[in-house]
Amino acid sequence: MHTLALPTLKKSLQVIACSVCLLLPFAAHSERLKDLASVQGVRQNQLIGYGLVVGLDGSGDQTTQTPFTIQSIVSMMQQMGVNLPQGVNMQLKNVAAVMVTTSLPAFAQPGQTLDITVSSMGNAKSLRGGTLLMTPLKGADGQIYGMAQGNVVVGGVGAAANGSKAQINHLGVGRISAGATVERAVPSSLGQGDQIVLELKDSDFSTASRVVDAVNKRFGPDTAAAQDGRVIRVRAPISNDERVSFLGALESINVTPAQVSAKVILNARTGSVVMNQAVTLDTCAVSHGNLSVVINTQPVISQPAPFSGGQTVVAQQSQIEINKDPGKVILLKNSASLADVVKALNSIGATPQDLLAILQAMKASGSLRAELEII
């Protein structure tokens, strides 16, 4: 039974301040092992470099405020055999100092090309139409793994007319497709030994156990063994060719992951609530200003008709009562669900701050049996 006492339905829709996204538990479905776990050692490596973009149309760095741009130009010219006189006032509005970033994929080999991102680190107005000069790309160990150079493509648009300016997207960041060339390969430990290590993306003992069972069922007993809730060791062929085929078959195994623990995520700025499964509530009473939430759970006894041969059934029925002047919502449910409470709070115009305070109170009292994460 639903009782809603509000002035009008239109007003109740207008006062909704929060949004709820509820993912109800559907029937268990299997996923590929490659979507649940990664192979240890198969990873990307970040690269970074400092360079100069030239050929800008007067939109480069203001060198009076970015002295590192002048220092970079002087150093580059000296390396090319050009010595600049002391005290020269360089006004290079067509040059901008930039940082170049990219990721080196696993098994990348010399000669392979990479896409790069070029970002202004000074006060350049735009990198549109500029050309990145040859820039070494280094890893965390300080070694050079790539060289970058090319024409910068900026996706933003800037325009000025009659004293007004309009800008879409960021003009200080651009990309160069295939703008870097790999110069050094990262050594891989994948082909060493007779074992490979799988790492689950989310630690879970039940999922790790199911992965081990699925692998052993596919390739034979004792092929896989779980080290903990994340790491799984798998015996693999020693030959590189056989190992690649083995990994291809391994990643294609279907595994049904275990159901994750109940979790509620609340965005305090927007009021969005996300639940990964149906989260129920125990008996509680929360008072927040002129807003109150009362949840009562009581047994409901159903007796069979005389001489019917049936059995008496005792079920739990919950009543959720939410009051806020001038609105009132009463819900009768077989179980008190957090989704029902949040929807009812929305219908009477509860603000994100109200929702945050109520959920925190429910969690502190033990009524909310789920992990509460506030972002």
What does this structure look like?
Belongs to the FlgI family. This is Flagellar P-ring protein. Residues 1-30 form the signal peptide. The protein folds into 3 domains: 2-25 and 262-374, no CATH class; 31-42 and 189-255, Gyrase A, domain 2, CATH 3.30.1360; 45-182, no CATH class. By secondary structure, it is an alpha+beta fold. Mean pLDDT is 80; it is low at 1-27. The longest helix is centred in the middle third of the chain and has 15 residues, at 205-219. The chain contains 7 helices and 23 strands. The protein is flat and about 110 Å long.
Key features of this structure:
five-stranded antiparallel sheet; alpha+beta; 7 helices; six-stranded antiparallel beta barrel; 3 domains; Flag_FlgI; Gyrase A, domain 2; 20% helix; 375 residues
What is shown here, in short?
The protein is α+β, with helices and mostly antiparallel strands and 375 residues long. The protein is 20% helix and 37% strand.
Furnish the topology, listing elements before pairings:
Blueprint: E1 2-5, H1 9-14, E2 20-22, E3 31-32, H2 33-36, E4 37-39, E5 45-54, H3 67-79, E6 96-104, E7 113-120, E8 131-138, E9 144-151, E10 157-161, E11 164-168, E12 173-182, E13 195-200, H4 205-219, E14 224-226, E15 231-235, H5 240-251, E16 254-255, E17 263-266, E18 273-275, E19 284-288, E20 291-302, E21 313-324, E22 327-333, H6 338-347, H7 352-365, E23 371-374
Parallel strand pairs: 2-18, 17-23
Antiparallel strand pairs: 1-22, 3-16, 4-13, 5-6, 5-8, 6-7, 7-12, 8-9, 9-12, 10-11, 13-15, 14-15, 17-18, 19-20, 20-21, 21-22
